[in-house]
Amino acid sequence: MLDLSKYQSIGAALKDALEEFANEVCLIEADREKEKERLTYRDFKERANPLAKAQQEAGFVAGDRASIIMTNQSKWLISAYAVFYAGGVLVPLDYKLTPDEKWQLLKHSGAKVLITEYPIWRQLSVAAGRAAANVGAVLVTEAPKNADLAGAQRWEEFRGSGEPTFVPRTRKDVACIVYSSGTGGRPKGCMMTHENYLEQCVALTSIYPFAPGVRYLSILPTNHAIDFMVGFFGPFICGAAVVHLRTLRPEYVREAFSKYKITYVSLVPLVLKNLQKGLQARFGELSPGKRKMFNAVIAVNKALTKSRPRLGLSRRLLKQVHEPFGGELRTIIVGGAFTEPQTLQFFYDLGIPVANGYGLTEAGTAITVNDLHPFRADTVGKPLPGMEVRIVNAGADGIGEVAVRSKTVMSGYLNEPELTAETIVDGWLMTGDLGRFDAAGHLQLFGRKKNMIVTEEGKNIYPEDIEAVFESLPVKEFCVFAANYIWPQRSLVGEQLLLALHLEPGQTYTEELRRDISARNSKLLNYKRIHGVVLFDEDFPRTASLKIKRNALAEQLAKLDRANAFLLL
Amino acid sequence: MRTLEQTTQEVLDLASKHFNVPATSLAPDDDFFKKLGIDSLQTLEMLSRLENHFGIELPDYEVQGVSDFRTLASRIQSRL
Q1: Measured on CA atoms in the order A327, A331, A336, A342, is the torsion positive or negative?
Q2: CB-based burial, A314-338: b 16+ in 10 Å, e otherwise
Q3: CB-based contact (8 Å) between A274 and chain B?
Q4: Per-residue confidence at A184, pLDDT binned at 50, 70, 90?
Q5: Percent of chain A having pLDDT more than 70?
Q6: CATH of A268-448, one of 3.30.1510.10, 2.40.40.20, 3.50.50.60, 3.40.50.12780
Q7: Which of A80, A251, A365, A534 could potentially form a cystine with A225 if both were Cys, beta carbons 3.0 to 4.6 Å apart?
Q8: Which residues in chain B are closer than 8 Å to A96, comparing Cβ atoms?
Q9: CATH T-level assignment (fold) for domain A462-568
Q10: What is the model's pTM?
Q11: Which of B64, B9, B78, B61 is nearest to A73 (CA)?
């Protein structure tokens, strides 16, 4: 691993990594059963440098912003490297957003260049939002031969000749603008500095080391803070390999584990649970006798791994479980949302450690991680090296808001000084999450203080961002809330959104109105949909400028009984 | 060559069989996440079934943002 304390920027560290590990395998890309390509670090450099050169020839200079909207693949990382090499600021966006949402964030970020793939560009180029954004150049990958590029250039042909000029940056310069959540009225663009990434990488690799020969399966979208760190920067500065799959169909993902002998993978809780269900179904098919024997072996494994994981032993004991995973899996990293302890325990008992932790984009990926010594399913682990974590305004039960101070905390939200000042107070990032430390120094989470939910797929949803779809609903007024914000649950499982309605005088909640709400709801992406309605028969409290006072309204709604008031849609 | 209506009907039939939901309860404009009670992963599984049935390759990106049977069928139709 490179000594990151010597480096000022992501670009400088990556540049040296490409030299240091020139002969190691860097990227493997597979499409279904076919391996599309396998690149060494030297090949990677040969692909990336002409792109950086062409960008420079096109006038791209230090501090310019370039966005990548792509599914996980080699070209994502090659493009990102070229941006950093040329001193640019990367704006990684979620390819799953709608075209208009993408344009909105492109506009907000001030991206000058967009690098995307043809199927995404086909939708983006005709979307209404294009006119408002100020993207000068668009590079499109894998466009068919006679495709209409709608003003874009082919990524494959955008190559300069000769050495590009490496543009140095300092640790305090912004490296990426990462959108931590939705797109409604107030996009939250976290300005992450080079220092944020360099420090986070040192902390994470101290617990989960990468090295040449280690293979990371990249499934979480690379725009996500976790995959960016453990599926790009972390493995690269250690000379490890990253495996990309162009389709995420479960059958091909399963195949990839054994085919590429995967060492690490990151998953969101939803996928992990799905994996659990699949394994349980397989175990359920065993005959009663075999099942009994199998359970006995699990019990032995459990006893032998009580204080720490013993991978070699577990792989031998539970060969039939480990073989489909390739036999070299060290850890499944799970992140993006809360994972239920029983799921974590299920895998650990089988000898597959799941590294659960706690983090948020604003804090630079991870704040705490379970170090597995010993494994604890009921906590999110201990603070990583370099993280100061404290509990603010703790109640008698020790539970309060989690606050973090570290070199990995973002410099602020783009163009949002007030929001930044509310979020980072005296150098402490106020997370809005409720937690408590136990005697062993492990952090336990108990719910959220803020009006938001995180889905099992790791999507942060802010209720105000989805209200537009209910505009002109025939009621007096409405407001969307996270149900747990109104009725705190001290739990992060099964979070739901609700629509608070104040009907007109004499109006009733009819089937017609319910259908109208349901139809509007179905226009939202499935993970953003509300689950139910709460009727409230007083005027919503408002500010002088007539904005709804959400916290005051939440306090009033809290007086209602959740079980009776929450009408499922 | 199938018409879009035929393709849509075949998608509905296959979904009803695969997820064990009565065929009569599914309509072309239904939201399949809601109606079948499935998540995005199960949708990918359904795609593999559809590919086998229609003998086509349907890249994952083709179905991003799609949540109703009719649109899904039209994406399939364009590849037949």
Answers
A1: positive
A2: bbebbeebbeebbebbbbbbbbbbb
A3: yes
A4: low
A5: 99
A6: 3.40.50.12780
A7: A365
A8: 64-65
A9: GMP Synthetase; Chain A, domain 3 (3.30.300)
A10: 0.86
A11: B61
